[in-house]
Write a structure and sequence with these properties.
- The protein has 2 helices and 13 strands.
- The chain is mainly β.
- The protein has one domain: Beta Barrel (Lipocalin), CATH 2.40.128.
- The strands form 2 sheets. The protein has an 8-stranded antiparallel β-barrel. Strands 11-12 form a two-stranded antiparallel sheet.
- A hairpin with a 2-residue loop joins strand 8 and strand 9.
Length: 200
């Protein structure tokens, strides 16, 4: 019963809005990170510089017709070592391509049988990194929380798919071609009373 009530509450709350949910940029727990591992070494970095939205034209809860667009500020990635940060920005050429973007549509949104407050979807979209576009599929978890909807996912990308030369961790040892991306951020609903242009 609690799960049904939760779902009905979410639908009611969403129906009062424009079917539009934006990244809550003031929420300190937003995080995008990457990790590459080779034997005996690992290479990682993170940023909270993520922005974007999910939009559904029917002013409804998230559906398989919901559009999404997210962008990550690559120049703000922090690996914990200043020189490595600068080297990474050079490799990614953040002066020319300061952001990575991911846009597309959600797949079918289904309730997680093990948690009544969690919904699962498979997002299909175009990842644009360093000026190269690739279609990827990402399994995504949507959790209803007090602050809004927490979105979380992890997925692999391969550097050579984006014409990125694997950097060296130490002499004769390069970062793995496979990079694991992990994202976690909160979305909040935007009111229908005022659209993006300020018109009512």
């Amino acid at each position: 019963m609690s799960g049904i009530m939760t779902y009905c509450t979410l639908l009611l709350a969403s129906a009062l809005h424009a079917g539009e949910w934006h990244v809550e940029k003031n929420y300190g727990a937003n995080l995008v990170s990457f990790t590459s591992e080779v034997i005996g070494f690992s290479f990682s970095g993170q940023t909270n510089g993520i922005d974007g939205y999910i939009y559904d034209k029917d002013s409804y809860f998230f559906t398989d017709d919901s559009d999404f667009f997210f962008e990550v500020d690559l120049s703000s990635l922090d690996t914990g070592i200043g020189k490595r940060d600068r080297d990474m920005r050079e490799i990614l050429n953040t002066r020319r391509w300061p952001k990575a973007t991911f846009s597309g549509k959600l797949g079918a949104v289904v309730k997680d049988s093990s948690d009544q407050n969690v919904f699962l979807t498979r997002s299909r979209g175009v990842l644009n990194l360093r000026g190269v576009e690739r279609t990827i599929v990402v399994d995504t978890k949507i959790r209803a929380e007090k602050e809004g909807f927490k979105i979380s996912a992890d997925f692999p990308i391969f550097l050579n798919d984006f014409n990125i030369k694997a950097p060296k961790l130490v002499a004769f040892l390069k970062v793995s071609e496979e990079i694991i991306i992990t994202v976690s951020f909160t979305l909040v609903a935007i009111s229908t009373e005022t659209n993006a242009t300020g018109e009512k």
